[in-house]
Structures are given as C-alpha cells and as structure tokens.
Amino acid sequence: MGVLREKKKIIFVSLFCIFPLVFLSAHTPVSLGCAAYANEDWESAVLFFKKAQALGELTDETLYLLVHCEVQLGDFKGAQADCGRFLDAYDSSPYFPHIMYQNGKLLHQLGRNESAVLYLCEFCRRNPDSFLYGNALYFMAESFFCEYNFDAAKPLYEKIVCDFPQNENIQDAKYKIMLIENRAREEKLLYLLKVIGEESLAAQEEYDRKLRSFKLRNEASIKVQGR
Questions:
Q1: Among positive and negative, which fits the CA dihedral 10, 64, 1, 176?
Q2: Vertex 144, ends 141 and 147: CA angle to 5°?
Q3: R_g of the chain computed on alpha carbons
C-alpha cells in the first residue's frame, strides 16, 4: 500500500510541474481544485474539478486527479463514470493505463464483474511491466471469485502468490486458494456420499425385492403343503 501511495505522490508532483505557474496561481476552478487536492481536501477538489468540467476546462491530468478524489471519497459510481469519459477522450494520454486499471477495479467494486475482467485483462495485455500488474490480476481473480467461477479465479490467485510475493493482496490470495481447495474437497466428498447413498439405496431395494419374492414363494409352498 505504501508503494502505491508513494507512486501517487510522485505522479501528483509531476502533474504540478506540468501546469504553468501563472495558470496555477490564478483563481480558476482547476487551480483551486489542485490546491484542494494537494491538501487532501477531496470534497472541495471534486467540487472545483466538476466546475471546471462543466466549463470544459478539464485536461487529462485534471480528470485523472478528479477520479482519484472520487475514489478517496468512496464515490465509485462517479469515479467509474469519469474513468469512462477519460478512456473515451484521452487514449494517447500517459495516464491512460492507470485509468484503465482503475476502471476495471471500480467495475468490480460496483459488482459489474464481467466488464471488470475485460478491462483488467486488456490492461495486463498492454502493460505487462506495470507496477499495477499484480493488483490487476488480483481484482480479475476477485471478479471471477464473486461470480463463483473458481476454476478461473484459482490460477490467477496462484500466479500472484508465485510471481508477486510482495503484493499487498498476497495474504488474501492465499486465503482464497485455501477456500477454493476446501470447496473442491467438500464437493468431491458430497459426490462420494451421494454415490454411496445411491448404491446403498439400490442395495436396499434389491434386498427388499428378494425378501418379498422369498415370502411369496414361501406362502405358495405353505398353501401347496396344506392341500
């Protein structure tokens, strides 16, 4: 988690270096939003960035910051919607890969797991060397897990454990592997019990049939003897 925070700080510092100082010093919605962002005043930053958005003043950098603010506030629906706007408008932006990852993660958090898998899979395909690659695998696995597709989820969790030992989600990945394996054993046991139960029932039915047949033959023999 600390690594991600540090990278976000680096990204934000680089963003501030991009904006002209004159522009930032002006009391525009964007500059006020950036100042609020720097102070981690997420609500104010969102208000200013939304105002800038309404005025058509947002760039890819400031829309990126808006998404981050919305995520910090837990507004996953709003953040995902702005991720969609970013992906539609800024496909050549250097922040495009991060927004693609964020969009996939948010889709999972909103329960739209099928779409989440598509975006996260595409992110992994395009960015095999990204520091977010392990996290993308994790949220892809989580999306499959939530849809009870354990056969697809397990190898992704295993890849995180094997290839990303420092990933922040590794303990949960190990736990999910254990749950999936326990479930597989339970399903196998239930199947065996069902088979044994069916065989036992068939044996009991065969025994009852033979017993009825024996009784009928015995009764017939007694009648014959009585004559």
A1: negative
A2: 150
A3: 31
Q: Cα(4)–Cα(218) distance, rounded to whole angstroms?
A: 85
Per-residue pLDDT of 121-130, as tens digits, reads 999 999 999 9
118: Cα separation from own chain's centroid: 11
Taking the C-alpha atoms of residue 39 and residue 139, their distance in angstroms, rounded to an integer, is 29
Q: In 3D, which of 44, 43, 47, 49 has the Cα closest to residue 15?
A: 49
Contact 80, 107 (CB under 8 A): yes
- For residues 7 and 131, the answer to whether their CB atoms sit within 8 Å is yes
* Contacting residues for 224 by C-beta, under 8 A, at least 6 apart: none
pLDDT tens string 62-95 = 999 999 999 999 999 999 999 999 999 999 999 9
Q: Cα separations (Å) of 215 from 49, 122, 202, 204, 218? A: 90, 72, 20, 16, 5
Residues 6+ apart with CB under 8 A from 94: none
Residue 13, pLDDT score: 44
Quick check: 74 and 43 in contact, CB under 8 A? no
* Segment holding 147, helix H or strand E: none
- Residue 181 identity: E
**Which residues, 6+ apart, have CB-to-CB distance to 116 below 8 Å?**
104, 105, 107, 108, 139, 140, 143
